[in-house]
From TrEMBL, chains A, B:
Listed name of the protein: N5-carboxyaminoimidazole ribonucleotide synthase
Catalytic activity: 5-amino-1-(5-phospho-beta-D-ribosyl)imidazole + hydrogencarbonate + ATP = 5-carboxyamino-1-(5-phospho-D-ribosyl)imidazole + ADP + phosphate + 2 H(+)
TM region positions: none
Family membership: Belongs to the PurK/PurT family.
Function: Catalyzes the ATP-dependent conversion of 5-aminoimidazole ribonucleotide (AIR) and HCO(3)- to N5-carboxyaminoimidazole ribonucleotide (N5-CAIR). Catalyzes the ATP-dependent conversion of 5-aminoimidazole ribonucleotide (AIR) and HCO(3)(-) to N5-carboxyaminoimidazole ribonucleotide (N5-CAIR).
Keywords associated with the record: ATP-binding, Ligase, Nucleotide-binding, Purine biosynthesis
Lineage: Bacteria, Pseudomonadati, Bacteroidota, Flavobacteriia, Flavobacteriales
EC number per UniProt: 6.3.4.18
InterPro entries, sorted: ATP-grasp, ATP-grasp_carboxylate-amine, ATP_grasp_subdomain_1, PreATP-grasp_dom_sf, PurK, PurK_C, PurT/PurK_preATP-grasp, Rudment_hybrid_motif
Species for this entry: Aequorivita aurantiaca
Molecular functions per Gene Ontology: 5-(carboxyamino)imidazole ribonucleotide synthase activity
Amino acid sequence: MNYFSTNFTLGILGGGQLGKMMLYETRKWDIKTHVLDPSIEAPCRIAADYFEQGDLMDFETVYSFGKKVDILTFEIEGVNIEALEKLEEEGIKVYPSAATLRNIQDKGIQKQFYKKHQIPTSAFNVFENKDSLNHAIFQKEISFPFVWKSCTGGYDGKGVSIIRAAEDLIPLADGACIAEDLVPFKNELAVIVARNPLGEVKTYPVVEMEFHPEANQVEYVICPARIDENVAHKAREIASKVSEAFKHVGLLAVEMFQTDDDEILVNEVAPRPHNSGHYSIEASYTNQFEQQIRAILDLPLGNTDSKAGGIMVNLVGAQGHTGQVVYKNIEKILAMEGVTPHIYGKKETRPFRKMGHVTIVNKDLDKARKIAEEVKKTIEVITE
Amino acid sequence: MNYFSTNFTLGILGGGQLGKMMLYETRKWDIKTHVLDPSIEAPCRIAADYFEQGDLMDFETVYSFGKKVDILTFEIEGVNIEALEKLEEEGIKVYPSAATLRNIQDKGIQKQFYKKHQIPTSAFNVFENKDSLNHAIFQKEISFPFVWKSCTGGYDGKGVSIIRAAEDLIPLADGACIAEDLVPFKNELAVIVARNPLGEVKTYPVVEMEFHPEANQVEYVICPARIDENVAHKAREIASKVSEAFKHVGLLAVEMFQTDDDEILVNEVAPRPHNSGHYSIEASYTNQFEQQIRAILDLPLGNTDSKAGGIMVNLVGAQGHTGQVVYKNIEKILAMEGVTPHIYGKKETRPFRKMGHVTIVNKDLDKARKIAEEVKKTIEVITE
């Protein structure tokens, strides 16, 4: 198959920042793209060869969009799987496949998949709804504290709560959910795995999420993780195993816990390029978006090593600011060494909305970490 | 001035591959762009916020395009300067300025500028037309061999000839021209200089053009150049001086000769991102296109150091092939370490047409050089 400067067409479901960064790569290789997104203001509204506004969860919309492309992928999990299945039956290649997405989209099914495939993960129970969860607590089948997760619709910390006492249950939404053991951990890690249809697999170095000491929010994604080499090796092995178990094609971001006794437990996965891989645009020989294109087009996978240490800081809307965004002091961070801001192109900021990210690269990771702290102190995502 | 996710508009004259790569950076920072190009098939036809088809040499077209933007730049020197002058008078910022472009666009004026500013360059004479050149030869005011250059319209080796005897004069076009001393040189070098309106200047490392031993064509652009440190230092100093003499704003590519006795002579300049800086996309902390945006928007300039050694190979159309392009064996070069092809998006190949380039990055420059040779042997730009 010849993809470069031809009529071959790649379809992308979702036109947000991940799609936007994927389009840098399709443009670099002159690969024709179609993008579907519900918002006419989506970051992918330009740079695709064809942009369509439409509902990603609507069968007919996704199906008729998919019929016009040769290979279909997605940059968000919330898409109509039945349409993907019908497209596959009719010969359209969908990567990752509908079957893989079925095993991931519902967190209850995802956890059961790990259990079935002997992938280490925290102990859990699945409940059909809030009532059955309450009943299990009442029957002392599960006990506080535990981690509650909604089976569907969770994203960026939404749909996840730590339940320490009965009153924490009150605000939870109804619906299918899981209750997981709250495992004490030293580190939250992630590994991005690329796998192509031929079954070639490559893993990126382990990244580490450094949390704010008080706010319990990820502040820095650091590559490579400052952990023991054996633990890093184990994390990459497990991530490969997860990708192979899913027969996943494309990128799979595997989020993991490093427990106090250096066990690795898989927390959850995302079947697409991921926030934890953004550092790769500046730091890696092959960035995650190019790797995604290589994987789904069945091209040889690229080198996942880093050219330099990389740290990523998310740019999220400041509290108390809603409206036309201003990136205050962006010129100050541009004067810092090895600093590259990425602005996603959302015109309106809201508290905690992901508006962009900043990458800091440096051969000396400690130096990068210090500059990252300066970046975080300096830039503000506010309104005028 | 706030450029990010606002209504600020950057205008770009020319929508070829340089403009296309510049748009990766405007997209990364969500800077609104307008692009003007004569071809509806131009690589920038997508990814700009607004694309206009029109003649870059036509006063009215350039003027009315420029009136709709806040800052205007160009990715090709062949634009209507009178329109730029009028736009400047009316308060539109044009970077590089019309005055700078006037000093560069005509090679006779450019050479006289170097002489006036004591910038080392080969000895030369300017002639109004072919007749006056012939007359000077007849009068023995100049002697064979010499380098003939057309004052205007030269590009990619067109408009340049080495004249060794009277019969070499016959095919030359009529028009203003220069006759330069043919200086024996060890190396052809280039330095990219960035300068912002505040006068902040940064130079990139020296790159070296490695020629094919027989074909006398540049085969590899190598960064850093494999030359003595003192010579490299001198080349960067001279390049800075050239940029400052021109009061240039934006990127200036300074092409130079290293003579047999290690003198540096300025050959010519290009007031824009340049083929010799393409390696920077993968190899530098700040790639040349981001640097161009930083410079013309008066933002702090970024680090020009390299993360790794970089080698660039042009992808030009093979002889004997005209028509719908095929990049034969591209999947084979994708399997080589640290190899990134860039496909410009021209559908038709022709002999020697620049269709793309390939960058090879590696911490070990010798290893990169070996891989570059494999790349060159493997990929073919042909028709089916």
